Amino acid sequence: MLIYFKRHRRLMRTYDISLTITPDLPTWPGDPKLVLERFSKMEEGASCNVTQISACVHIGTHVDAPYHYLGGQAKTIDQIPLNILTGRTYVLQLPDEVDLITPEVLIPLGVPPRTRRLLFKTRNSACWSGENNHFHEDFVAISRKGRVYRQSRDPPGGGGLFIRGAIRPTWANT
Fold first, then answer.
1. Measured between alpha carbons, how far is 58 from 165 in angstroms, rounded to an integer?
2. pTM to 2 decimals?
């Protein structure tokens, strides 16, 4: 999906990078699979078609709020302003050899100063194409030190930086 809109007299493109949610979409190990159930069907005399959806919110393309990993008083998803999630984004393509995103990986790649939103393009994208409908536990992840490095470069009053990249629980302290 490609949308154009005017902002500050400049044309900006918006790309929808969302995965299509289907029952075949891989889920995090242990999370429930998506279930779609039609319970009102026009072909059976109902006035409209109605489908019930049941899924974990940790499915497909999504945002993990700080509360997901930190708990306690950290922000929940309803406390994250939507404007933080939209706008100019720097896409950083990482070499296929990268398994873990660390400061040592980020520093030589030269993320521009004052970057507010960063999207990592990794080999993970191949996990969502074709017949790869199982969860890949060897996905490219970002280390805690990688997150801290990026957050330390946020612009003053920048409202935070959101990145796409899962954090492997086994590497919580790296």
1. 13
2. 0.67
Provide the pLDDT for residue 170: 37
- Hey, what are 74's tokens? 């950290």
The CATH homologous superfamily to which domain 62-171 belongs is: Putative cyclase (3.50.30.50)
Averaged pLDDT of the chain: 75
With beta carbons less than 8 A apart as the criterion, state whether 117 and 87 touch: yes
- Kindly state the DSSP code that residue 93 receives in the 8-state scheme: E
DSSP E strands, 8-126: 10-15, 35-40, 50-54, 90-93, 100-101, 117-121
Burial 83-120 (b: 16+ CB within 10 A, else e): eeeeeebeebebeeebebbbeebbeeeeeeeebbbbbb
| 62 noted as active-site residue | no
* Phi, psi angle pair for 145, to nearest 5°: -65, -35
Classify residue 80 by its DSSP letter.
S
Residue of 62, 68, 134, 136 with catalytic role? 68
